[in-house]
Amino acid sequence: MRQLIHVPGLNYEIKSLKHNVVSCLEASTAKGLPLQNELKSLILSTSSYICVVHLPGNKNVNLRSIKRKLNVNEVYLASRDILASLDVPPGTVCPFVDSIWKLPQLVSEDLIDLQFVSTNAGELNRYIVFNPQVILQNPNVVTGIFSK
Predict the structure, then answer these.
(1) Which helix (H) or strand (E) element contains residue 131?
(2) Measured at the alpha carbon of residue 35, what is the angle toward residues 122 and 83, in degrees to the nearest 5?
């Protein structure tokens, strides 16, 4: 099982699912949680660097908003090669995996007010539930309206 880094205020219990899930819809259905409370974390490539954006699972990412906020010319979903270099297969992007925590973090403002979110624990069949405000402790956080 993949180890999650220690972040002050991150109190969680790793829970298991009966089967693997990849998408937010699959995960929220398997857990019996509202889709908005499933954390959607996407690795992005910009014209300058790699970053991760976090938003509620029922929203889509707004790449134009990210381009404006970061003042970059291009933003797109990272390739499978980039995911492999970070050791995060599709469906296992967790903000508390070391290779992800080190990246710049874009946190959509509509995520911050949720009482809790759930995300995978670095594996397709294990997950955690936590207060999304914990992500704001990352020293490389940028907040904005990154969802639509």
Answers:
(1) none
(2) 30
Angstrom distance (rounded) from CA 79 to CA 99: 16
* Tens-binned pLDDT, residue by residue, of the chain (148 aa): 677 888 887 888 899 999 999 999 999 999 999 999 999 999 999 988 999 999 999 999 999 999 999 999 999 999 999 999 999 988 899 999 999 999 999 999 999 999 999 999 989 999 999 999 999 999 999 999 999 9
3-state helix, strand, coil in the chain (%, to 5): 25, 25, 45
Residue written as tokens 């970059």?
A: 72
How far is it between the farthest Cα atoms of the chain?
43
- Strand 105-108 versus strand 141-144 pairing type: parallel
CATH code of domain 15-144: 3.90.960.10
pTM above threshold 0.90 = yes
Domain-by-domain residue ranges, the chain? 15-144
Residue type, 135: I
